[in-house]
Design goal:
Elements lengths: L5 E3 L5 E6 L3 E5 L2 E6 L2 E5 L4 E6 L4 E2 L1 H9 L3 E5 L6 E4 L4 E3 L1 H11 L1 H16 L9 H23 L2 E6 L9 E5 L7
Parallel strand pairs: 2-6, 3-7, 6-8
Antiparallel strand pairs: 1-10, 3-4, 4-5, 8-9, 11-12
């Protein structure tokens, strides 16, 4: 039975690259193909599938780099006419996603995560009896204070934001641009 918790991650990748009659080896933290015409660097970090045609040799170190970058390797016939084998590509078990879902769905665990993240970001302890909206309020006060501070530092006049919760697109920031203060 197929494991339905395996999630492909292929965003922002070059779809595929076909190479034949070359030697592929590791070059620092990437790979390169060497053939009779010279050396060709391969952008393995943004490559989804590397197809190896006849006459291609692949070093162990190159396979290691390909695997670490989540690139599937396929051994194919001349001009991609046949498919012989493949190595695992950019798919991983979704245990981290499942764990995150459990933390979000359990109110008690979710609050512990929020408090731990607040402590980590701001190096400040929160009172135990605060609710999530109250914690968000603390963050809002921090942001208003940060905007006010940087307004004073840069000379850009900032007077807050006007929210209409029913019309998010109509939200306006009241910012009057001035020349920065000369130091």
């Amino acid at each position: 039975m197929r494991n339905m918790q395996i999630i492909p991650r292929l965003s922002d990748s070059v779809s595929f690259l076909y190479i034949e009659k070359a030697v592929i080896h590791r070059k620092q933290n990437t790979i390169e193909a060497v053939d009779e015409n010279g050396r060709i660097p391969i952008p393995v970090a943004s490559l989804s599938v590397l197809m190896l045609g006849p006459g291609t040799s692949l070093s162990h170190a190159a396979v290691n780099i390909l695997a670490k970058n989540g690139c599937l390797v396929a051994w194919v016939g001349e001009n991609i006419s046949r498919f012989y084998a493949q190595g695992m590509g950019e798919t991983y078990k979704a245990y981290k996603l499942m764990q995150q879902a459990q933390l979000v769905c359990d109110a008690e665990k979710r609050k512990k995560v929020v408090v731990a993240m607040y402590r980590m970001r701001f190096d400040q302890e929160l009172e135990e009896n605060l609710t999530l909206p109250q914690i968000r309020g603390h963050e809002g006060v921090r942001m208003r204070n940060a905007y006010a501070y940087w307004s004073r530092q840069t000379g850009v006049n900032w007077e807050g934001r006007q929210y209409n919760f029913r019309k998010w697109g109509a939200t306006q920031s009241t910012v009057l641009y001035q020349q920065p203060m000369q130091s």
